[in-house]
Amino acid sequence: MTGTLVLAGTPIGDLSDAPPRLAEELAGADVVAAEDTRRLRRLTQALGVTPKGRVVSYFEGNESARTPELVEELVGGARVLLVTDAGMPSVSDPGYRLVAAAVERDVKVTAVPGPSAVLTALALSGLPVDRFCFEGFLPRKAGERLGRLREVADERRTLVYFEAPHRLDDTLAAMAEVFGGERRAAVCRELTKTYEEIKRGPLAELAVWAADGVRGEITVVVEGAPEKGPEETDDAELVRRVRVREEAGERRKEAIAAVAAEAGLPKRQVFDAVVAAKNADGRGPGER
């Protein structure tokens, strides 16, 4: 019989948030794969647990090489516990490759639910949480970051991002540029830790606040785009939407068709708006 892969959620700050079952799994697993074995040691000491199984490292640098080894352990009947530094494995953390490989070999995959920075930030943000998108980390390069934000400029659902503290001010400024400075957001810092802080406000104000420097682990929650009435879908807005789609990689024909469908307008009307914009500024909607 094959073994079982267990994805274990770990505390995002306060170690006392660890679920009781986590200690049981740590004590009983045949193999514990940890993103950082030193942090794992601190966690097991806090829980008063000594893993009986073999402890191996499993992080971004060795994930591809170590996955086949762990899969063979699973196929051989082992119970493999995967833990990352904080939160749930696979969510912007190592784990996806191992889960996919285990599923491919018909290995059972289960989880020990635990704290989540995504859900905690959403709950504390004060923004709508009935529908949301998790976007992970944005690209580090400014141009790529703007492009990624433009892809979701019209997204109605609440958006959630992880960000490094030293890039937070640039990210908030880029969000204000693409989404609009008045779009509401919340910066959640050091969740569940001693210096937890939730800073809420318009993106433009948050960008100014972050310019002085922010420390700690950051989750940013951004309000979704407002619903636009028919009167707001003018030619300039239609052209902007086409440009956003083209910059995201769509062909102009498909972009025009998609924007027309979104706006409930004939494709010819959107096409005419794009042509008029091209004639007015001497360049196509996707050209710089």
Rounded average pLDDT: 93
By DSSP (H or I, 4+ residues per run), the number of helices equals 11
- Spans with pLDDT under 50 lasting ≥5 residues? 284-288
In spatial order, strands of the major sheet run 3-2-4-1-5
Percent helix, as a range, is: 40-55%
% residues in beta strands = 15-25%
Q: How far is it from the N-terminal to the C-terminal residue, by CA?
A: 59 Å
What structural class do helix, strand and pairing data support?
alpha/beta
Biggest sheet details:
5 strands, parallel
Number of strands: 10
Shape category: globular
Order of helices and strands: EHEHEHEHEHEHEHEEHEHHH
Q: What radius of gyration results from the CA coordinates?
A: 23 Å
Characterize this entry briefly.
This protein is of the alpha/beta class and 288 residues long. It contains eleven helices and ten strands. Helices cover 42% and strands 18% of the residues.
Throw out a few tags for this protein.
288 residues, alpha/beta, five-stranded parallel beta sheet, five-stranded mixed beta sheet, 42% helix, globular, disordered C terminus
Question: Can you characterise this structure?
Answer:
With 288 residues, the protein is α/β, with parallel strands linked by helices. It is built from eleven helices and ten strands. 35% of the residues are buried.
